[in-house]
Amino acid sequence: MDSKIIPLQNIDEFKSSILIEERVAILIFTAEWCQPSLNLVTLMKKELDQQRKRLSQQTGVINIFVVDHEKEGCYQIVKQFSPTTLPYVYLFEKGKYIAQFGGLDVFAMNKLIKKALESSRAL
């Protein structure tokens, strides 16, 4: 099963999808007008799925949750994290933040994906 891209609409969805989650999850702050954000979401899903397949799917599914920085319902999520740039990415394990990076940084993205896959295998 491949990773899914799941848009979050409000703080309640964030809490039930990531904070209560018993596995690894990726959270990306984006905006409709920010092409690097949109590119990163697509690129991260593609790379995450490819690396999982290389590992013979010995890891659990890692979903990518997306928050539109300007969507009215997402204000509380944005306020809680205060991303300093777009895109901004956070990695969570069992509801706890364990890594982050900002911008369209392919090296940082691959490093975060590697950490996500290692964490997922440990669960």
Describe the structure in your own words:
With 123 residues, this protein is α/β, with parallel strands linked by helices. It has a five-stranded mixed beta sheet with strand order 1-3-2-4-5, sandwiched between helices. The chain is built from four helices and five strands. Helix 2 crosses helix 4 (106-122).
Which of globular, elongated, flat, extended, rod-shaped describes the shape?
globular
**Which residues sit in consecutive blocks of at least 5 with pLDDT less than 50?**
none
Give the H and E element order: EHEHEHEEH
DSSP summary, beta strand count = 5
> In which order are the strands of the major sheet placed?
1-3-2-4-5
Q: Structural class from helices and strands? A: alpha/beta
Give the strand content.
15-25%
Discrete helix count: 4
Average of pLDDT: 93
Radius of gyration: 13 Å
Query: How many angstroms does the end-to-end distance come to?
Result: 17 Å
Main sheet: strands, sense, barrel: 5 strands, mixed
Q: What is the share of helical residues?
A: 40-55%
Topology overview:
Layout (H helix, E strand, L loop, with lengths): L4 E4 L2 H9 L4 E7 L4 H20 L8 E6 L6 H7 L6 E6 L2 E7 L3 H17 L1
Parallel strand pairs: 1-3, 2-3
Antiparallel strand pairs: 2-4, 4-5
Helix pairs in contact: 2-4
Pfam families: Thioredoxin (PF00085)
InterPro entries: Thioredoxin_domain
Protein name: Thioredoxin domain-containing protein
